[in-house]
Amino acid sequence: MKLEAGQVAVITGAANGIGQALAGALHARGLRVVLADIEEDSVRRAAAELGGETLAVPTDVADPAQVQRLAEATVERFGRVDLVANNAGVGAGGAMWSIEPEDWQRVWSVNVGGIVNGIRAFVPHLIASGHGHVVNTASIAGFTFGAFNAPYTASKHAVISLSESLRGELDILAPEIGVTVMCPGPVDTRMLRGVTDGASADARTEWLASFTPEQWERFAPRMEIIKRMQDEMMPATEAAEIIIRAVETNRLYVTTHPHYAEAAKSRAELVVAGLAEAN
């Protein structure tokens, strides 16, 4: 979909990180932008900084009624919607059996439920208008696997599957609507900083601080991965431009760090080899 001045874009998780950067990049192209986030003061401030034709709508994407009101507010203010970026996300770390049920639930209700709610609220508007595009933010973690990050990783696998299913359904019912699943590698956001800073020697999170020396030795290779992520962090503004190019070229899969595709390939090869093995 060609992005043009006057179109309307809705971005969730828009108070910071990739969402805020995407809102800024689209606004700079002349789009009217609706910023949604659970952090009311921050999302209003982000919209005010952009100025012009913007709208801030405090929204908890885990609540279907709030996302429906977001859609209604968008159409009431601007009369249309062209691009929807379901970008809000949260995480929870630790051994999966030690993560509290409410933390599991929150990750899934935001990362997966938030996208389902966005699809239900906005896709009918796109279909009715005969054009549009949906962007769902997953993660390169959705193609791989990682210990001590199970709620987040599993939810991002689900986001990729949801996006593939959405693309398949729209290809039949409304082929003029595009779908992109954004799978970022390390992007300089508050969420990733929380991971990398929490793993530092002087600020370890509670679950990391509980490791024995032997466990630390076994965990050491993963610390190298975290360090590499710190070294490879991309500015959120660059990630936003990658998303825009993916929308305009109707790419289904896109990432900020193409070399991470090798990790996805390795996992896929393990899966295929395991399934193909004779019983």
Shape assignment: globular
CATH superfamily of the largest domain: NAD(P)-binding Rossmann-like Domain
DSSP helix fraction: 40-55%
Structural class determined from secondary elements: alpha/beta
CATH class of the largest domain: Alpha Beta
From the alpha carbons, calculate the radius of gyration and give it in angstroms.
19 Å
**Based on the structure, what is the oligomeric state of the protein chains?**
single chain
Strand order of the largest sheet: 3-2-1-4-5-6-7
The total domain count is 2
Order of helices and strands: EHEHEHEHHEHEHHHHEH
Fraction of residues in β-strands: 5-15%
Termini separation (Å)?
47 Å
Q: Any idea of the CATH topology of the largest domain?
A: Rossmann fold
Averaged pLDDT: 93
Low-confidence stretches: none
Question: Could you tell me the number of beta strands?
Answer: 7
Summarize the biggest pleated sheet: 7 strands, parallel
The CATH architecture designation of the largest domain is 3-Layer(aba) Sandwich
What is the count of DSSP helices, taking H or I runs of 4+ residues? Answer: 11
Family: Belongs to the short-chain dehydrogenases/reductases (SDR) family.
Pfam family, one: adh_short
Domain Ketoreductase: 7-190
InterPro entries: KR_dom, NAD(P)-bd_dom_sf, Sc_DH/Rdtase_CS, SDR_fam
